[in-house]
Amino acid sequence: MKIEELKKLIEVFENSKLTFMEYEQDGFKVKFDKRENQSNGTVFSFAPQGINMPSANMNQNANQQNELPQANKIDPKDYVTSPLIGTIHLNNPSSGKAYVSLGSKVKKGDKLCVIEAMKVQNEISAPKDGIIKDILVKDGDVIEYSQNLFVLGD
Predict the structure, then answer these.
(1) 67 vs 14, 56, 61, 62, 70, CA distance in Å?
(2) What does the pLDDT look like over 77-132, one tens digit per residue?
(3) Which H helix or E strand runs over 116?
(4) Which end of the chain has fewer CB atoms surrounding its CB within 10 Å, N or C?
(5) 8 Å CB contact between 141 and 37
(6) In Å, how far are 2, 116, 122 from 90, measured between CA atoms?
(7) For the purposes of burial, counting CB atoms within 10 Å of the CB of 126, is it exposed (0-12), middle (13-18) or buried (19 or more)?
(8) Nearest in space to 104 (alpha carbons), one of 127, 129, 78
(9) CA–CA separation, 97 vs 23, rounded Å?
(10) Is 57 helix (H, G, I), strand (E, B) or coil?
(11) Using an 8 Å Cβ cutoff, are 128 and 108 in contact?
(12) Cross-strand partners of 148
């Protein structure tokens, strides 16, 4: 891919309403991501096909030790995604405490958060037993349909 083609793709993506895009041509793969849970700005990632690049969310300890972290290999089945658009509430309004936190052990059906949509509080429950490995959103964020919210691992 020529640099002019890449610049054009970036311009088109930046000026669009898309929040995520992947493009592949001749073994060259590029990903564009504007979702809020990734960073404060747009994340651009590209590499020749077959090479795993570290994710934008690198482990702080690995950075402090001047090592490259292992590529985040998260099974897509470990993501808990949003079934609707709305505002996410990670804290219980009556107690002020978080429903879950990093490292919390949860059982299938346990409440993870609440998503408010059109003044309706929708409870999001754990789809399986596991441990909260990562929380990908902040309390009060406006989230999109199918956006990753939590990583629920073994």
Answers:
(1) 32, 15, 9, 5, 9
(2) 889 999 999 999 999 888 889 999 999 999 999 999 999 988 899 999 999 999 99
(3) strand 111-117
(4) C
(5) yes
(6) 44, 11, 12
(7) buried
(8) 129
(9) 41
(10) coil
(11) yes
(12) 81
